[in-house]
């Protein structure tokens, strides 16, 4: 087992053991992010940019999954207050030391474009309001066509599926802050 895999396994174990009692422990154990290729590149000063990026991606995904079941709250951006869709994105990125804009629209327009075929874990998936053709919803891609999002009033943070007809019709693009 290489050093990165050991570190990831240890981090995952710590997250599992420190799960808040308000969460259903099994909820975020249902999906473990897929392994990321290309973790062996190092430049001359010892800095590992791909490993750091990969670790940040894992942190974002782990915190998204950890918050499955948290109630939707308009303007919410913490497990204590609940989440709206963009608040979940802000919270998970803060956990990986990445500061991003607060709204889904600002997140869409201030991040790097990622093609759907090149999606990686922790990339953001954006959807439009079909009547207004504006970005109004965002989720965190966790692999295998699955994303985590805060769907709306009266619902909880949950999984979404890119192949779901509802999301297929409203998909406007993918972006990343990594």
SSE blueprint and pairings:
Elements: H1 3-17, H2 49-66, E1 77-78, E2 82-83, H3 85-95, H4 104-109, E3 112-114, E4 124-129, E5 134-143, E6 146-149, E7 158-161, H5 165-170, E8 171-176
Antiparallel strand pairs: 1-2, 3-8, 4-5, 4-8, 5-6, 6-7
Biggest sheet, in brief? 6 strands, antiparallel
Number of helices: 5
Shape: globular
What's the order of the H and E elements? HHEEHHEEEEEHE
What does this 3D model show about the protein?
There is one protein chain. This protein is an alpha+beta fold and 178 residues long. The protein has one domain: endopeptidase domain like (from Nostoc punctiforme) (endopeptidase fold (from Nostoc punctiforme)), CATH 3.90.1720.10. It is globular and about 35 Å long. About 26% of the residues have low confidence.
Task: List key phrases describing it.
single chain; 178 residues; alpha+beta; endopeptidase fold (from Nostoc punctiforme); six-stranded antiparallel sheet; two-stranded antiparallel ribbon; 5 helices; 8 strands; 31% helix; globular
